[in-house]
Amino acid sequence: MGSAHGHAPAVLAFELANRTYFAASISDRGDDFFDQFTDRYNASLAEQEAGICAFYVLVAEDGSVLGRFNLYDVEDGTARLGYRVAERVAGRGVATAAVRELCRMAIAMHGLRTLRAATSHDNAASQKVLAKAGFVPVGPATPADLGGKSGTWYQRDLQP
């Protein structure tokens, strides 16, 4: 897993190829997201430079993006985790392995102590990933947290 720098075209291709798949379990990003993708992507990388966020991509040998794994709202040793993997590798443990790796990177590279993630009640795959990666449910997530759906916040305390 590496930095998202230099991967804008591959990330856009990943988002477009998996748009319908993602929309089945998480809110669709909307046409504006795709229309303004490059500007938004560059703005996100600027936030990364400022230390507010950290964006990572999992890239296949052919250069295609298999997943995005992001840390948001980095503050006081805590960050929010977000991720999505390509439909073609879903159910193979890719997301779980990458989330575990990101937990290690969160400690080593970002000095974080706690990660939080929200997932909707109907996203069983994401709930499994979080549980396997050592996250525990800590309370309800509102539609505002989850793009219009209700769900659960999960948390993992990181050990150096």
Your description of this structure?
The longest helix has 15 residues, at 94-108. The protein has helices at residues 8-17, 19-23, 31-35, 37-49, 94-108, 124-132, and strands at 2-3, 54-59, 65-75, 78-85, 114-120, 136-141, 151-157. It is globular and about 35 Å long. The model has no long low-confidence stretch (mean pLDDT 83). It is α+β, with helices and mostly antiparallel strands. It is built from 6 helices and 7 strands; from the N terminus they run βααααβββαβαββ. A 7-stranded mixed β-sheet has the order 1-2-3-4-5-7-6, with helices on both faces.
Structure summary:
By secondary structure, the chain is an alpha+beta fold. 36% of the residues lie in helices and 29% in strands. The longest helix is centred in the middle third of the chain and has 15 residues, at 94-108.
Task: Provide the descriptors you would attach to this structure in a database record.
single chain, 7-stranded mixed beta sheet, 36% helix, alpha+beta, 6 helices, 160 residues
Overall pLDDT confidence: 83
Number of strands: 7
Low-confidence runs: none
Share of residues in helices: 25-40%
Q: What is the count of helical runs?
A: 6
**Rg (CA only):** 15 Å
The main β sheet shows up as:
7 strands, mixed
Structural class: alpha+beta
Write the element-wise H/E pattern from the N-terminal end onward.
Answer: EHHHHEEEHEHEE
Strand order of the largest sheet: 1-2-3-4-5-7-6
Inertia-based shape: globular
End-to-end CA span: 20 Å
**What percent strand?**
25-35%
